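HUMAN: Forgive my ignorance: could you write out one protein's sequence and backbone structure tokens?

ASSISTANT:
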Amino acid sequence: MLTEKQLNRYADVLLWGLQTARNRKAAEKDLVLVRFDLKAVRLAEILYAKLLKAGAHPLLRMNPTSSMQQDYYTLANDKQLVYIPPGEEALFAGLNGSISIYAPESLTHLSKINPKRIAKAAVAKKKLRDLMDKREAQGKFSWTLCIFPTAELAKHAGITQKSYSAQVVRACFLNTRSPVAEWRRIYKEAKSIKQWLNRMPIAYLHVESENVDLHIALGENRKWVGISGRNIPSFEIFVSPDWRGTRGTYYADQPSYRSGNYVQGVRLKFEKGRIVKIRAVKGQNFVKQQLGMDEGAGRLGEFSLTDKRFSRISTFMANTLFDENYGGTHGNCHIALGSSYSNTYSRNPLDLTKQLKRKLGFNQSALHWDFINTEKKRVRAHLKSGKKVTIYENGKFKY
């Protein structure tokens, strides 16, 4: 478990993330939602006090327990599944910040639930996420999230809880005197890499590894973003490409848990932007159902690269937040199927309407699911001039 000193440092890093993502400090009258699982209540208490001292209005909301979640998907009728309580939309339309603390007591409690019911609820709640996306584009909202080590996470990662906690501490620099200073250093270094990438007139990317041969069209008016304070930890630099220009094969050698389902060895084949073949060693039916959630679920929403020089995560953590930022020997890349990120639009995000998204190939979906590859790889940028530039190799950006 984390010590009181480490918890205070963790809270400081989360507040840094929230402020950095919005490029200003929490201000008086800011309404900040803190969502947490029961096992992370002490970290929530510390955050609550720090937000009060900063002059914000913290709103605490404990997440449903695993038993409550199971009952919801088992007992709710169709109307209850899509029901949004009165005032919920008004709340999300007025939030200035959101901090989520994920501390699961179970990872598999929804494994026997019909995925279509989970998808139905997710699609209905997309309007709340759209409200937050709009406020974020206006500069009125920011968010960050983290995980709190639990015995359940450690069990499914195949390590002890002590080792799991140590990975969290290392990854978030909680064993240093000033973790925020470390994050500021990485933020500065990543800024140079993003500027280097954004200067390139990239037509498409070619990703190659032992099991990956994927072409990704970058699209017009795109920019690389990442290490912005959203997600703690986060070492990835990513872009939301034009989904229509995706072709080739992709393989996720990292397993993942989603909605209580364990998925392993996913292989995907793309043609003209759409997935035409899905194979998985475990969880194949669940993957197919999730990728059929809506029209955009089976299309590319994100491409990401993590430099192993930034990340100190060196083992599978049974949690996407950590696994998508895996450093290890070869770094990692991941693709996300489903929704794209508006902040990768190089112009004013407020102008990125649904119609413009369709025109530019920004994918839209209620799904966003990351599939991670940690194999040794090379990523080449094919520039509009015809020149080829290797931008990533052996786990590092070639900056």
Notes: The chain has two domains: 4-181, 186-397.
